[in-house]
Amino acid sequence: MLKLLSKGITVAQSEQATRWAQEVGLSVRADFIVGTPGETLESMKKTLEFAKRLKVDYAHFNKFVPLPGTELYNSLTSKGYKFDFTQKSSILDHSALMYVPESIDKDAYRKYLDKMYKGFYLRPSYILRRLLSIRSLDQLKGQINGFLAIFEL
């Protein structure tokens, strides 16, 4: 998927950059793009497992959006795909999907997106780590709001 998206990085480089940031005490948020052409539920599962293995502070599983002017957009539109960029979407709202990979049923894709967030954020080890990191009332409020948002999925 990294190659398909022309990211120019490897999994090993991502792991190393994460380790370096954590070693110097930085909070790390990792963003993953899921649902690219060729994506499968199995590859999405591997992405979730990778996110867990990194032990980052926050993970976002962003739905693939084929942006105009990119190779993927051109490839998909040449195959007849049409995209409505007026749809509003948020990171946790999976009702509006710009693109669904051909190899995944739309409902299964939506359900697995929810599973990715719950699978990452509702692990006992993650919850304990977040609780131990709280240093202020504002941080506590932020953690509670984030926790409740995951339950709304």
Give a quick precis of the structure.
This protein is mainly alpha-helical and 153 residues long. The protein has helices spanning 11-23, 41-54, 71-78, 106-121, 124-133, 137-151, and strands at residues 29-34, 58-63.
Task: Based on the model shown, name its key terms.
single chain, 153 residues, mainly alpha, Transcription Regulator spoIIAA, two-stranded parallel sheet, 50% helix
Largest sheet: 2 strands, parallel
CATH class: Alpha Beta
Task: Classify the helix fraction into a percent range.
Answer: 40-55%
Unreliable runs: none
SS-derived structural category: mainly alpha
What does this structure look like?
The chain has a two-stranded parallel ribbon. α2 (41-54) packs parallel to α4 (106-121). The longest helix is centred in the last third of the chain and has 16 residues, at 106-121. The two termini are 26 Å apart. The protein has helices at 11-23, 41-54, 71-78, 106-121, 124-133, 137-151; strands at residues 29-34, 58-63. It contains six helices and two strands; from the N terminus they run αβαβαααα. The protein is mainly alpha-helical.
How is this fold's topology laid out?
Elements lengths: L10 H13 L5 E6 L6 H14 L3 E6 L7 H8 L27 H16 L2 H10 L3 H15 L2
Parallel strand pairs: 1-2
